[in-house]
Amino acid sequence: MKPFQYHQPTEILFGRGRLNEVGHVVSRFGCRCLLVTVPDAPEFRGLFGRVRDLVTAAGVAVSHFDGAIPNPTTEVVGRGARMARDFQADVVLGLGGGSSMDTAKAVAVEATHPGTVWDYLFFRESQPTPKTLPVVAVTTTSGTGSHVTQVAVVTNPAEKNKSAVFHPLIFPRASVVDPELMMTMPAGVTASTGFDVFAHAFESYINPNGSPYTDMMALEALAIVAKSLPAVVRNGRDAEARERMAWADTLAGLCIANSGVTLPHGIGMAVGGFYPHVAHGQALAAVYPAILRYSYQTVPAKFAAVGRLFDRRIAGVRGLKAAVMSCAVLERFLKRIGMDLSLGRLRVPKEELEALALQSLVLPDYRNHPKVATLKDVVKILEESH
Ligand SMILES: [Fe+2]
Q1: Which residues pair with 61 in a beta bridge?
Q2: Considering only Cβ atoms within 10 Å of each terminal Cβ, which end of the chain, N or C, has fewer?
């Protein structure tokens, strides 16, 4: 077997009703908590107040930063970090989807270090130190996997750049995954975050850095997505399917924390940096079909294995033919969950594709793709995806 290593320090509290334990969990890491969320809105139906009450009841003082936004920016992180410092927070609780959890992680770094979070990106010389505040996460979507990863994605609008802090110190110390919190997620968000789960598992599985450990989890996550994502997009109140997707999201997050993502995320991150109105899952969905067609010949057996999870008719087919069929099956799957998008439909201007291609090769993710793309390849993929 291929040698590998696996690391995962996050304690996971999984299951319906486990939100009730959040106060006790937070109290183990600090006594002054900065709660990080998006602005309050009717769809959260008292969730923020409930969490605040649970944490307060555990004897922890709470200050609420409700300024997280989709594709969180350096400015947002700066405001959160100032609030954490003023409040003398000693623990940060990220409650929400990837944006809130990533903001919490970024705040935990910026609040305790000189400069801004942008100075601590994965490739910088200065890196987070043990002064970083402990982070607790409560995930309310089934996507991003951020509750079990060491990544915080941040956008710098002035530089039109989306990049990431990547450090073991920002793994959440504990994460609550309570599928009851996901029951009211709108179908569009369910599909978009659910497709991100697919992408994490798929890219981990085809990633040369994958291991037998991550492969096992990736295939399980993909099998769950194949069955439960269409079910939950159709009926958001399907409790069992919600629970299964929360598990798939967790598995896929554990995968990317160890093997990483590949070309689709490289391009998807560039799209998000250029066009913050495009949700992460939408950006991925728009470019996936072209990337699948570009890649299948390099790792046909892996494509076939994934395709078989989504369509049993591939079971008896072998070799390249099975891989080709898998591309078509996955494209049909996108349609089934209402994610058959194009960059054009997402209002990405055609004349900016060249610049977008250049930006897609800034993050190192593309180098872990089984077929390493050149700038010309990426331009072609983007044109096909428009
Ligand atoms: Fe993602």
Answers
A1: 32
A2: N
Q: What angle do CA 199, 120, 193 make, to 5 degrees?
A: 20
Ligand 1 midpoint to CA 194 (Å): 10
Q: What is the DSSP letter of 9?
A: -
d(CA 339, CA 345): 11
Residues 254/278, Cβ–Cβ less than 8 Å? no
Give 115's DSSP letter.
S
pLDDT band at 142 (very low <50, low <70, confident <90, very high): confident
CA of 34 to the centre of ligand 1 (A): 25
Q: Is 175 exposed, middle or buried (0-12, 13-18, 19+ CB in 10 A)?
A: buried
Helix axes 98-110, 74-87, angle to 10 degrees: 60
Say how far apart CA 110 and CA 107 lie, in whole Å: 5
pLDDT digits (tens, 9 = 90+) for 33-79: 999 999 988 877 799 999 999 999 999 999 999 999 988 999 999 99
Q: Rounded to the nearest 10 degrees, what angle do helices 280-295 and 319-336 cross at?
A: 160
Distance between Cα 144 and ligand 1 center (Å) = 5
CA distance 251 to 306: 16
CB 245, CB 231: distance < 8 Å = no
Burial of 3 (0-12, 13-18, 19+ CB in 10 A): exposed
Res. 233 pLDDT band, cuts 50 70 90: very high
Distance 138 CA to ligand 1 centre (A): 17
* Orientation of helix 187-206 relative to helix 239-259, angle to 10°: 40
Question: 177 pairs with which residues across the strands?
Answer: 14, 139
Taking the centre of ligand 1 as the mean of its atom positions, its distance from the CA of residue 267, in whole angstroms, is 11
